[in-house]
UniProtKB/TrEMBL annotation:
This is DNA primase/polymerase bifunctional N-terminal domain-containing protein. The lineage of its organism: Bacteria, Bacillati, Actinomycetota, Actinomycetes, Kitasatosporales. It comes from the Bacteria.
Length: 227
C-alpha cells in the first residue's frame, strides 16, 4: 500500500476521485507524498519541490491574459496564484538549464511551488487554469511553447502601450481608438484637439475633423442627416 492510500479523502472537494491519478503523480514529487495529501486536505495547496517531476515557469498575469486575448493557447498544466498575480506553467524537469526568456522565470531544483490539488479549479487561492491530464498527468507544456506564449503576450502588451489613448469629450472615458472631431482654440492651454470614442461618434453622429469643409474653424460638427 502506498503512503497516500491511507489518507482520508473526505476533506477533498467533489471531483477529487477523478483527479486522483494526477494527484498521485504530483504528490510523488515530494519526499513524503502523504504530507502533500495532508496539506491538500488542510489548505487545498501543497508545497512541492521543483526539479524532480517538473519545473515551473513563473509568468506575470498581464502577459498571459494578453496572450489569451490574442488567441494564444495554454498547452499544458498551469496554475494561477491570485495572491501574487502570477501564472505557473509546469514544464519538464531541467528546463531551467536551457531557459532563455527575460519575461518569465523558470524555477527548478532548490525552489518550491504551492501546487493546488488537481480538483481545485477556481478561487479562492491558487488554482488550476489548466489541470494536469487525468489519464496522462506527466504530459507537460514544453519550454518552447511557454516561451512562445510569453512572447505573444509581451508583443500584445507593448503594442497596446504604443497606441495613444485620449479622453472622449462626450462620455469622458479613455479610448484607445480616438477619433479627432474638432479643435480647441487659444486660451492659456494653447489649444489642442477634441477627441471622441467610436461609440460617441456613432451615437452623436460626429464628423471626423478630416471630413470638415475647408472653411471649418474646428468646432465639432454632426454629420448631416435626420435628427
Amino acid at each position: 500500500m502506498e503512503a497516500h492510500d491511507a489518507v482520508d479523502r473526505t476533506a477533498f472537494p467533489a471531483g477529487a476521485r477523478t483527479a486522483e491519478p494526477s494527484a498521485a503523480w504530483l504528490a510523488a514529487a515530494a519526499d513524503d507524498p502523504a504530507q502533500a495529501y495532508t496539506e491538500w486536505g488542510e489548505r487545498g495547496v501543497a508545497l512541492l519541490p521543483l526539479g524532480r517531476r517538473f519545473d515551473a515557469v513563473r509568468i506575470p498575469e498581464v502577459l498571459v491574459r494578453a496572450a489569451l486575448r490574442a488567441h494564444g493557447t495554454v498547452d499544458g498544466p498551469m496554475v494561477l496564484d491570485p495572491g501574487n498575480g502570477m501564472y505557473y506553467a509546469l514544464v519538464p524537469p531541467q528546463s531551467t538549464e536551457t531557459w532563455a526568456c527575460a519575461f518569465g522565470a523558470c524555477l527548478g531544483r532548490g525552489a518550491h511551488l504551492g501546487v493546488p490539488h488537481p480538483s481545485r479549479l477556481g478561487p479562492p487561492g491558487a488554482h488550476w487554469v489548466v489541470p494536469p491530464c487525468a489519464h496522462e498527468p506527466s504530459v507537460l507544456a514544453t519550454a518552447r511553447i511557454v516561451r512562445e506564449l510569453i512572447e505573444l503576450g509581451r508583443r500584445e502588451v507593448e503594442g497596446a502601450a504604443a497606441v495613444p489613448r485620449e479622453q472622449c469629450g462626450w462620455c469622458k472615458e479613455e479610448t484607445g481608438r480616438p477619433v479627432k472631431v474638432g479643435l480647441i482654440h487659444g486660451g492659456s492651454g494653447g489649444g489642442g484637439d477634441v477627441h471622441a470614442c467610436p461609440g460617441c461618434v456613432a451615437a452623436h453622429r460626429l464628423m471626423a475633423l478630416a471630413d470638415h469643409p475647408a472653411d471649418s474653424d474646428g468646432t465639432p460638427r454632426r454629420v448631416p442627416g435626420r435628427s
